[in-house]
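Regression test attached.
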Amino acid sequence: MENNRGSWGSNLGFIMAAIGSAIGMGNLWGFPYKMGANGGFPFLIIYLFFVITCGVVCMGVEMVIGRKTGKSPVLAMSQLGKRYKIVGWFGVLSATIIMGFYTMLVGYAVRYMLGFGIQIFGASGFGGMGGTDFFVGYTCSPWVVLAFTLLTFALCYIIVAGGIETGIEKFNKVGIPALFGILIVIIIYNFTLEGASQGLVYMFTTKGMEMAGTEFNFITACRMAAGQMLFSCSLGMGAMITYGSYLGKDANISKNAWIIPAADTSAAILAGLAIFPAVFAQGGSPKGGPGLLFMTMHDTFTSMGWIGNVIGFLFYLLVIFAGISSCISLMEVTSAHIIDSSAAKSKPMSRKKAVGIVTLIMVVLSIPVCLDQLGMGSIIPPFYNSFMAEGSKDLLDVYDLLSEGIMMPLGAILMCLIVGWKKGLNWMEEEVELEGNKFHTKKFFHICVKYVTPLVMVFVLVALVLSYINV
Ligand code: PHE
């Protein structure tokens, strides 16, 4: 390699970092709610179908592209063919745009963790306000929101600028086991609460739809499951190309491609068990998004009495671990792009400088989102809002539509088509089977990469875009 890009200390380090990227806000506020509101167990089956036919496959494809080229998305894709560069650009742009809102949300969690932390010692962490009042007051204080967002950016900068093995890997090796540990503690506590079983009824049975006030619609369930899967597994935007580019040639890609989505799905289910039993036991109602994670959970912890402060503190610490480990993978995509492309132009740039520039760009993108106050700041021009669906009318949704709604599914489709039809599956096989590794699921990958995954993803792309706009 012409520049010293860094690498993982071990395959385990890579797995932890990739799982860290995958587990994030998506798991915590999206999956459990969507599962309950879309049929419970049937939704889980649909979700698993997408994880296996698309998640595992895209994960394998991205890791192969990354490790084979040893480059970040733009250079990696252009190494596969000059005109495929655009697919790499989708990745870099998606990562940058997602960071424009994701960090703000992690910043919310930092504020809540501090609030409950202070309350453990008897002080008031939320000015004595209830979940809704505090949330509205907080989101409508854009400068405070921005301050917590900047704090989150600073943490991410320190980790990513610290390097692959000494920054990102080190953080995830502690953060991911801690995350699962906290999940288990909260789940065990939840099951001591009276009425907790309602949470299980919500998540796993068809009664959940009644509780959420929704009706089962197969197409909606598929769209929700597929969009959720792509975002939750961090696919279609080059995060796994980037992380894969630091992977040793002896690592078993086909095994990793199964382990990471499996861990992500387990975390999503565990997140549901950490959230809904408590929500129902404390008389709350199911929701998704920021409303659930902040308003409902805030009230839930408050109504538990003093111990609720401890559980609340742990819960938001968990959200922070999940969120930061995702943020750093997004920051790494864009940083690696700058590091690689400056090295390719024989003007190598230090990691610290590259990460600094990237952080600055992302901060600039996040400022209007903080000022928009989840739509209450009305930053978006009315003409744009007129064709956005109800509930998708803030700047965060615009960023989300561009990345999660358009560029990520498009990226996933194109990557599979390029590997399946242009490079050929032998090209992929060669890389997977390096150093004597076995490719046990070769046949399955053959069929999926060429046919199943692109077809399914086209459906997802159309359905996702339609869900954002008024049609
Ligand atoms: N997977 C993360 C989540 O579930 C989000 C993410 C998407 C991270 C794409 C990196 C890349 O929240």
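Expected vs. actual: identical. Residues 69 and 76 are 6 Å apart (CA to CA).
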